[in-house]
Amino acid sequence: MDDAAEVPEIRQPTGSRLxxxxxxxxxxxxxxxxxxxxxxxxxxxxxxxxxxxPWIVPQNPYDPAQLDLLNSNLPPIWKAEGQAPFxxxxxxxxxxxxxxxxxxxxxxxxxxxxxxxxxxxLGIGLGLVAGYVGGLLDTIIMRVADVQLTFPAILIALVVxxxxxxxxxxxxxxxxxxxxxxxxxxxxxxxxxxRTVRSSVMVERGKDYVQAARLIGLxxxxxxxxxxLPNVTGPVFVIATINLALAIITEATLSFLGxxxxxxxxxxxxxxxxxxKFLFSGEWWVVAFPGIALAGLVIAINLLGDxxxxxxxxxxx
Length: 317
Prior knowledge:
67% of the residues lie in helices and 0% in strands. The chain is mostly helical.
């Protein structure tokens, strides 16, 4: 017998990440839910159509040189007066409604995703600090969050948007306007992330792995970001999914009220505001199709978020 003790072999997890995911409870829950599968397909289809718009639509609705007033107010192609290639008709500027919807859908998605990124980054950072550091800093952050919760998110966005536009006047171009709306949305929805992350961090900071990280001399920022943050991201994904729909609705509301994106670069909200002027004159398609696209997108994302919330809830397993 050898004097040296035999070292047991440590087996590494086999299979790729994709294989482990396909063998997980999350994937099994997804396959069992027809609603989640339908919502996922609808969401992916809308994303694909929106970002492939330059290659599948007959015109760029943001380019005035491609618009022709002779093609204005055409009905959808299945109507007697409809003309190809305007499948869903045109508006009073000769803008193809299908092109405008897909370009507007892409712009709404970009603004919504950037808004979620801003609100998530701000909320997660403040939640980590409040939950891990605690004390006076935690009290200040949470009291600010409590005050903001007393106001509707759309009101916060309107205030931020109005103050910025009053400060800069007419100096804002289209890109600056988009950035302003993104910041407005981000400042409207950070509270949900901060409160959720703070609660999770307060549970995690007392666990053994955090104490071990302190004993070996790791700094507080490293412990928070590298060790605590990965263990509190589950609820964050649920909030981000649901807030994407809320961010898109907020942007559409701002644009519908005339404080969002301009008519020269319309999002879905701007298209609905423009089409609303022609609703009672019989040109229903100008407002109907952007409204259907917005409603379909928000419903699909919300259904996906509801499934993800239930799938990640251990009490429902």
